[in-house]
Amino acid sequence: MVILLEYRTGVSHEQSRTGAALRRERFDGNCATGRPKAGMAKMATISLADVIWPQACLVVTDVQVDFLPGGALPVPEGNQLLPVVRALMESERFGLLVATQDWHPPDHVSFASSHPGRLAYDVVDLYGHSQVLWPDHCVQGSSGARLHPYLPWVRCAAIIRKGMDRSVDSYSTFRNNWDASGHRASTGLVEYLRGRGVLDVFLCGLTREFCVKWSAEDAAQAGFRVWVVWDATRALDPTTDQGIATALKGLGVGIVRFAELQAAAG
Q1: Is the pLDDT assigned to residue 40 strictly greater than 50?
Q2: Which CATH number fits domain 4-105+137-265: 1.10.10.10, 2.40.170.20, 3.40.50.850, 3.30.230.70?
Q3: Tell me, what's the pLDDT at 14?
Q4: Active-site residue among 136, 138, 211, 218?
Q5: Cα–Cα distance between 225 and 203 in angstroms, integer?
Q6: What is the value of pTM for the model shown?
Q7: What is the DSSP letter of 45?
Q8: Which residues contact 109 (CB under 8 A, 6 or more apart)?
Q9: 35, 66, 137, 200: least surrounded by Cβ within 10 Å?
Q10: ∠105-160-71 over CA atoms, to 5°?
Q11: Could you confirm whether 231 is annotated as catalytic?
């Protein structure tokens, strides 16, 4: 595997022109919303009343310093999700907590700096698929790659480090993006969750239209009931929100808010 699965004890460029305007100028959301859906059928409607909470897993996606204000690839209002994510992690509601962490080598293929003449947020073809070129971010061992210290990571039973293969990007928690042979390698998380008896996967974190969305799609394809805690995520480009929600609902993914989880779990 090119993704490191770390088991933990317990319960468990243009630096002056960053932001949503520049991102929309370089890509229109197609890289987030236009991926093939082969083999992904619409699922039956799901209800929080059906959740068996000891068999539910919360996946906290890429809440790292570089993705928050002041970081190398800041998500607008990214810091506003921290209290909600912390409350989810401390709720004692979920039978299992797992986190993901972008962990790129310095010369990663997704970095604009690895493509002479290209700028951050340009979109290029990589192995026959659209690839956004990002500012250098979450470089292995850097301060920006750290999981945000406000959150109680000790509660996580496993941390998935992804994006470690310099030649392949990795948005989803469950599988890498496509490699040169057209394959999307597994991170091993599907098998881990099945081994722990997980039925429902709840996703939160960053970013809504990339890593959270791709993870939701892959989890649904793997046969889990999947939920996105909407107010515990944020998008790089908030104008994609409606399209993301519609696409996920079309796959049977539940869109819920923290208050709904509080009410459902009593």
Answers
A1: no
A2: 3.40.50.850
A3: 31
A4: 211
A5: 11
A6: 0.87
A7: P
A8: 126, 131, 166, 167, 168, 169
A9: 35
A10: 55
A11: no
CA dihedral 260, 228, 198, 182 (to 10 degrees): 170
**183-212 pLDDT, tens digit each:** 999 999 999 999 999 999 999 999 999 999
The length of the chain in residues reads 266
Q: Tell me, yes or no, if 62 is annotated catalytic.
A: yes
Domain borders along the chain are 4-105+137-265
Question: Which whole number is the average pLDDT over 63-92?
Answer: 97
Q: Which secondary structure element, helix H or strand E, spans residue 87, and what is its range? A: helix 82-89
CB atoms within 10 A of CB 29: 19
- Cis amide prior to 207 (ω within 30 degrees): yes
Q: Is 211 a catalytic residue?
A: yes
**Distance, CA of 219 to CA of 191 (rounded, Å):** 11
3 state SS of 31: helix
User: What is d(CA 195, CA 193) in angstroms, rounded to the nearest whole number?
Assistant: 5
Instruction: Quote the pLDDT of residue 35.
Output: 53
CA distance 34 to 37: 9
Specify the long-range contacts of residues 191-199, CB closer than 8 Å, at least 24 apart.
192/5, 192/98, 192/158, 193/57, 193/96, 193/98, 193/224, 196/57, 196/95, 196/96, 197/55, 198/55, 198/56, 198/57, 198/95, 198/96, 198/224, 199/51, 199/52, 199/55, 199/56, 199/224, 199/225
**Average pLDDT of the chain, as a whole number:** 88
To 10 degrees, the CA torsion angle through 100, 170, 212, 48? -70
Active-site residue, selected from the candidate residues 102, 156, 162, 218? 162
- pLDDT band for position 264 (cuts 50, 70, 90): confident
